[in-house]
Amino acid sequence: MGTWRNWLRFLAVAAAYVAAFALARRAVPFSVWSPWFVFVAMICFLGLAAMARPLVDIRMPRALRPVRAWEVERGLYQKLGVPAFGRLLRRTSLRQLNTDVYLGGDSRGTARLNAQLEAAEASHVWDALLVLPYVVHAGVTGAWMTVLAFTLAQVIVNAYPVMHLRLTRYRLGRLTERRSRRADGVTSIGV
Fold first, then answer.
1. The whole model's pTM is what?
2. Could you tell me the residue range of the domain that residue 161 belongs to?
C-alpha cells in the first residue's frame, strides 16, 4: 500500500521515538507510570499513526464507523461547541496538525478525503483507548488529580477531534449525496 519512502519515514519516526525514550530515560530517570510520560506517549501515538496512514488502512471499529444522524442533527454537537472547535482548527496554525483532512478544489477526492477523515478519527479513538487503562489505574490508586488532568486531556486531544471528524464525515456524505443526485438529474434530462 505504501511506497518505500513512506516506510522509511515511518521507521525513522519510530526509531527517533525509541532513541528519544532511551536518551531521556538515561538523562532523567522516570517511571513509565509517570503522568508526563503517558501524556507524551499519547501525543507520540498520534504522530506515529499519522506516519502509518499511508502504509496501513486505519479504520474505525465496525460498530462505530457509521455516523448516525442523532449524533449531528439533534444539536448535541452544537451544544458542545464542536463546530466552534472545528473553526478553531481550520482558522489557526492547528490546521497544520493534519493537512490530509481538507478537501482540495476537485470533487473527485471526496472518497479519499472520507478515508483520511476516518483514519484520523480512528487514530484518536485508539489513542483514547490506549490511555484509558492508565486513567483507570490512576483512579484505583487514588491519584484523582491525574484522573482529572487526563480526563481533560482526553476531551481536548481525542474526544473533540473525534466529534469534529465525525461531523465532517457526515457533512461530506451529505455533500456527496447531493452531488450524485444532481449528476443523476443531469443524466436523466440528457437522455
1. 0.84
2. 4-190
